[in-house]
Amino acid sequence: MSMIRDLRAAVRPSRVSLRKDSGAYDTTRDPATTSAVVDCAVYRDGARVETEAPLSPHRAMRQVRRDGGFVWIGLHEPTEDEFAGIAREFGLHPLAVEDAVQAHQRPKLERYDDSLFTVFKTVHYVDHDELTANSEVVETGEVMCFTGRDFFITVRHGGQGSLRALRHRLQEDPELLLKGPSAVLHAIADHVVDGYIAVADAVQDDIDEVETEVFSPGRKGTPRGTDAGRIYQLKREVLEFKRAVSPLLRPMQLLSERPMRLIDPEIQKYFRDVADHVARVQEQVTGFDELLNSILQANLAQASVAQNEDMRKITSWAAIIAVPTMVCGVYGMNFDYMPETHWKFGYPLVLSITVGLCLGIHRTLKRNGWL
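^ that's the sequence the OP posted. Answer follows.
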């Protein structure tokens, strides 16, 4: 039972804020080589079998079949030709191989005769000094896992989501690796979902910032609003985040509820914890989407209110200007017989009446909140 208690401790250190963590998204493949294989190792009795030279997948599998244990192969964006030999060596299903090479898959779990094929969407929060209408908030990648009786293969796509640190943590806990490939599958699932939690916390900060700007008072105590483009861009990023999280819930529930030949029973129950975390993040992301809808509607309503305020002011001043315009229009007509046109006090009287009417209208409109 001590091994099981240590299971969460081995993978939980990955739950750090993606604003500050750079190690979780480090190098992909060695730039000095063109091979898609990032790492290939044999694990026996819970420890990595050290070799003088790097192992090829074929040599690693020969060792496993001869001496026992399992092989863990990590690849980054392999081509069809690069992956074809590995697929033949491990008997991978052609449909799963096609998905692994082509990428752009939704999270899922597929069971074949001798292996499980699992797709995870990795999510990375992109730091930005200021949220704009063109800011990228969420960057996604993919991790595809082939789980067999004596092998575990990961295929990554995207420039982030490295599993190197996770591999090192697992190698420091031999009791976990004794459980074989299913323990590695759980560790990767938990690692990916912990990344979701960190991204969700960071996105929450961006939403809080936008919400504050929308409802913070501007001049004269009225809400000042914000750029609708920023809200819409953040909503699009949240939608991309949602596409990564929501489809993963069902595969994690299947791994935790249905007995599977390739999943160790003691490891299986810990997938329930991962499924619970996925459900929590899914609810949180759904709440983000609904909240952003409300914020966007509130911002548009504020824009409409501001436009109405401007139109009322324009209408009010037009009403005031209409009085002298009408008077000047009447007395500008060239008729010989018009009242008070030849009276000495006619001009001051008409001017006084005009000013008085304008002031009266201005006072009335201001009292009613139009000015």
